[in-house]
Amino acid sequence: MTASPAREVRIREVGPRDGLQVEAPVPVEGRVRLVAALVAAGVRHVEAAAFVSPTAVPAMAGAADVMSALEQRRDDGVTYAVLVPNAEGARRATWCHQVTFTLSASPGYNERNVHMSIDRSVDEAATAVSVLAPRGIPVDAVVSCAFGSPFEGDIDPADVNALGERLLGVGVTTLTYADTTGMATPRRIADLLASTGPDVGLHLHDTRGTALLNAYAAYGLGVRRFDTALGGLGGSPAVAGEPGGAGGNLATEDLVHLLDDLGVTTGIDLERLLDATRLVAELVRHAVPSRLAAAGPRARTSPA
Amino acid sequence: MTASPAREVRIREVGPRDGLQVEAPVPVEGRVRLVAALVAAGVRHVEAAAFVSPTAVPAMAGAADVMSALEQRRDDGVTYAVLVPNAEGARRATWCHQVTFTLSASPGYNERNVHMSIDRSVDEAATAVSVLAPRGIPVDAVVSCAFGSPFEGDIDPADVNALGERLLGVGVTTLTYADTTGMATPRRIADLLASTGPDVGLHLHDTRGTALLNAYAAYGLGVRRFDTALGGLGGSPAVAGEPGGAGGNLATEDLVHLLDDLGVTTGIDLERLLDATRLVAELVRHAVPSRLAAAGPRARTSPA
Known about the structure:
The structure is a homodimer. Chain A is α/β, with parallel strands linked by helices. Chain A has helices at 15-19, 28-40, 63-71, 87-91, 107-114, 118-132, 157-169, 186-196, 211-220, 252-262, 270-284, 291-295; strands at residues 10-13, 45-50, 79-84, 98-104, 139-144, 174-179, 201-204, 225-228. The model of chain A is unreliable at 1-5 (pLDDT under 50).
C-alpha cells in the first residue's frame, strides 16, 4: 500500500463463495484450484467459502476443507475470509484469517436468509466478535439489502447507517453494504454514503444491469473497497425464486477493466484474471454473465 | 420542451433499425406495430429503418414500406428517421422526416460496412445534404467507431472531431458519435467530448458491459442526446464475426430507468416501454439482453 489511497482500490473476490453458491456444487479441489488461479492473477482478498448449512446451500458443502487447504497458503500474503451467518459459524472459524458476518437491513430478507430478527443477528454478531476478536481475527459485517429489498422496497439510509453503527458498537472491524437484489442506483449510493461516509465496502449485484455504474458512482464518492465475483456469477439463494430478486455479482473483470482504464491500481492482472474466469466457466459448466469476459478487453492498438 | 435542458434527455429509439438488423427478418407489419408500441410509451424520435441493400442486411428488407406506413402517422409529433449509407440512399429518402447518414471514423470499418473510403463517405454525405436540405430534411451524421475499432484500436479524438467538423462543413445538421464495438470508457468519453463539446448525440453499445456507465458519464459531462434500442438488441453486421466486435445497443429501458431515478425527463413511460420490449422479444423469438427487462424496475415500495 505505497500508492495514494485515492488511486487504489481493494477488491475482495467473492466468486468462490457468492459466485458459486447458486451453482451446482463444485468439488473442493476445483474451488481451491479456482482460488489459486485468482491469487495468480494478483487477487489479495478472497471470500473463499461459507460456514452455512450444506442442506440449505449445497454448493458450500466442504467449506472447512476449502478453508483448510487455503490455510496451507498462509504465506502468500492473501487474506482468505469465510462467511458466517451466526455465532455458531464464528465458533467454527477460529482458525481462519478473516470472517465476514452476514445479516440484513431488511427484516424480511434477514428472516428468510438467516432465520432470525435483525436484533438477534446483531446479538449473534456480538457473540461472534467476542469469540474472534481475542484471536485477532477481524470481522467484516456485510449488511445485505442495504439499498432495499423485494420485501420492503426502499430502506431508509438512516436506518441502514444506524444498523452499521450498532454493529461497530458490538465490535465488528469494518462494514460492507450489499445491494443483494440489484436495487442500488447512483442516487441511492450517494444517499447511503451521505449517512455512512465513504470508509465502507460495497458489494454490488447486477440484477438490473447497474452494478458497474454503481461502482463507478461510488468510486467517485470516495469508496475504495468493493466485493466482486469473477464472471459476474452469483446471487442470493434466499431470493432466487423472487421476480427481480437474484442476480449475479459485479464481475471482477468488469471492475478491473474500468479501473485500469481510469489509472486506478488494483494489483490484479486482467489477462490472468480472465484465465481464472475461463476456469470457473469450466467448473460451473456454463458461460458466465460478464459481457467483458465474452468480448475480451478493449483493444488499445490494432491486433494486426 | 418546457423543462430546463439540463434535466431533460432526448432519446432516439433505434431498435426498429439497429436493434433488428442482426435478427432474423421481422415482417413489415411487425416492425410498424413495434414502432406504434414505442410511440405509445412516449418515444418521440425513432430510427425506423435503413435504406440499405436487402441482400447485405435482410432484416432491413421492406424499409420503404415501413417508412411509408409511418408516414401515415405524420401528425403524431414523432420524428421518424431512416438510415442511409450513401447518396443513393438519400435520394430514396426525399419524402422522409429525417435522415441519419452512417459513416465511420475507422477506415477499416468504413470499408467493411459501406465499402468506401472515409473521404468518399464525406463526399456522399455532401451529396446527400444537397438532395435533402432543399426539402428541409435534416441529416444527422452518425460517426461509427468513434471510440476505436477492432481494426485500428483507439482512434485519436482529434481525428474524430476533425471528421465531425468536415461533416458540419458539408452541411449535416447534427452529429452523433457511435461506440459501435463497445470500446468507450468514461475516460474515452471525456477525451472525445473535450474535443467536440457536449452538443452531440451518443450511440453506445454494450459489447463490454459499459454502455449504461458511459451514458451516465456522458450525461454528467452535459450530453443530452442518446440513441438506444429497446431490450438492448442490436449490433453491427459488419463486425458480427469479429471477436469482441458486435454487441447490443444501450437498452432504452436501462437508460430510462436510470434517468427516472435521477429525476431527468425523457417523456418515456417505463412500464409501457417494457410492454414494447415484450413485443420485440416475441417478434425476434428470443429473450432480450437487457437485465432490467428480465428483472423489472426496482421496487420503490413493498409489492405486498
